[in-house]
Model the fold of this input.
Amino acid sequence: MYTSNKRFITFEGIDGCGKTTQARMLYDKLVADGQEVEFVREPGGTSISETIRHILLDNNRRELAERTESLLMTASRAQLTKEIIIPGLDSGHWIIADRYADSTLAYQGGGRKINLEWLIRLNEFATYQLEPAVTFLIDIKAEEGLRRRQSKNDRIEDEGLEFQRLVRQGFLKIAERFSARIIVLNGQRSIKELHNQVLKELSKRAIL
Ligand code: ADP
Ligand code: TYD
Done:
């Protein structure tokens, strides 16, 4: 049985879609409103999870198997959930996450073609069956994501355009499956328009 928390909001999408921008804007708005807010990113967010992130994104570790990748992504998540997210929510803080469990379904499921039902079970274990109240999926074409990216490619970004296309399809598929939780936003809209949409959707659900 999953539990969900109204103060737990996640942002998802392919690399370069604009999710960090939107997650930061929501974080800033909540802080300006005087709320206690924690910002987390995945993979990473704790000392152990950042060490795991280093292995996951290292360009020199090409031999990393898909199943190992899935286990490390979810191991990083379990540590972040236990160490930061659950205690934060228990203290009444907001948690704004730049990626969470849906990234595993889209990248390792859609991109690497690992069986989705296995990954859903793995996520169930790693998240302590905690779900975000709302997930914003910022949807853009793979080409646009590539254009927007400025940093040097990590191991996963190096997979190229076709991989990003599969990941995007993976995200859209799970958005259909979990339509009560995942809100798809058109990432082609302006940064400001998207932020306003985020706020509107949250107030529609009586979260803000
Ligand atoms: P992500 O975290 O999804 O990789 P970022 O938020 O870091 O993406 O954004 C990647 C780049 O695209 C940044 O330069 C950012 O300013 C720009 N960007 C973000 N949102 C938009 C948008 N809606 N329209 C145009 N450019 C955007
Ligand atoms: P990061 O530099 O944080 O990318 P972004 O700014 O786009 O979030 O790198 C994280 C990479 O890890 C990104 O390519 C997505 C990938 N990833 C997975 O493959 N599975 C997962 O479960 C998560 C959380 C991330």
Remarks:
- The chain has a mean pLDDT of 97.
- The radius of gyration is 16 Å.
